Amino acid sequence: MPLALAFFFWAMALITVALFIARVWWLPELASAHGGAIDDQLVLTLVLAGIVFFLAQAALGYFIWRFRARGSERASYWHENPKMEVTWTVATAILFIGLGIQGNRVWAKYILTQAPPDAVTVEVTGQQFAWNMRYAGADGKFGRTDPKLINDANANFLGLDEADPAAHDDVLTQNLMAIPVNRPIGVILRAKDVTHSFYVPQLRVKQDAVPGMGIRVTFTATKTGEFEIACAELCGMQHYKMRGRLLVMSDADYEKWLKDRAAAQ
Ligand SMILES: [Cu+2]
Fold first, then answer.
1. One domain, residues 132 and 205
2. What's the 126 CA to ligand 1 centre distance in angstroms?
3. Is residue 77 part of a domain?
4. What distances in angstroms separate CA 192 from CA 66, 94, 150, 220, one per listed residue?
5. Average pLDDT in the 209-238 region?
6. What percent of the chain has pLDDT over 70?
7. What is the CA(200)–ligand 1 centre distance, in A?
8. Looking at the domain assignment, is residue 126 inside a domain?
9. Distance between CA 241 and CA 248 in Å, rounded?
């Protein structure tokens, strides 16, 4: 019986590790420039944790079998082993702190990178339960907004002030965002009501949108296609419905799309 139990632990450990190695359940396909470093960091964490997990399970199985009850022997009580305790505490601390420092470097590079001056700027404003996108238009300037002018019935979701000349060419969409591929994108992330979270899994971009703040998010998409923009913050009863489409296009297609949208409104 102890041998069967030991085999059970070994088999479980092997199957679990094999599922990770085979990547049966894995992240969605990567489509951004900064995402590779995040994925590598995740893999490094999983590999190190996987090795420790496997060794621990292997040892557990071995001990179950090695120290099984034999004859009328009684178990004896054994109290502390400072050398072993210090060893695994220090080893765990080095592993944790090391991964933390390394991960922090990857994170800082992503989150602290400023959009270069030639970046495409898109303002994204979350509301219950939609994403409002805004492009500055030909003048490169966003029109003035005023919360008092917000009127959802008239589709003025952002409270755009029509009296401001810079507002006239602003391009507005809802739940639809187009960007050019291989060009830096600078998103200005806002929220109208409660906290939302702008999440595009393929881009490895996830950032809270906080009322009263204009949070900058910089990324470069490396693949054309259509991706889902999800809200990753439980923001109310219809949170599950809060989703948008992100279209990553060639430069020419993007310019045409923007021009068409501007002409249509
Ligand atoms: Cu939301």
1. yes
2. 6
3. no
4. 63, 43, 10, 26
5. 96
6. 100
7. 13
8. yes
9. 22
Distance 108 CA to ligand 1 centre (A): 25
Encode pLDDT of 130-175 as tens digits: 999 999 988 888 988 888 888 888 888 888 888 888 888 889 999 9
- 207 Cα–ligand 1 center, Å: 12
What is the tens place of the pLDDT at every residue in 78-111? 888 999 999 999 999 999 999 999 999 999 999 8
What residues are paired with 222 via a beta bridge? none
Same domain, 167 and 44: no
Residue 245 Cα to ligand 1 middle (Å): 14
Q: Which residues surround ligand 1, an ion (CB under 5 A)?
A: 196, 231, 235, 242
Task: Give the chain's domain count.
Answer: 2
How far is ligand 1, taken at its centre, from the CA of residue 154, in Å? 21
**Which range has the worst mean pLDDT, 33-37, 137-141, 209-213?**
137-141
Range of the domain at 18: 2-68+83-111
pLDDT-derived band at 217, boundaries 50, 70, 90: very high
Please indicate, yes or no, whether residues 130 and 260 belong to a single structural domain of this protein: yes
Tell me: pLDDT of 1 over 80.
no
Q: Give distance in angstroms: CA of 203 to centre of ligand 1.
A: 18
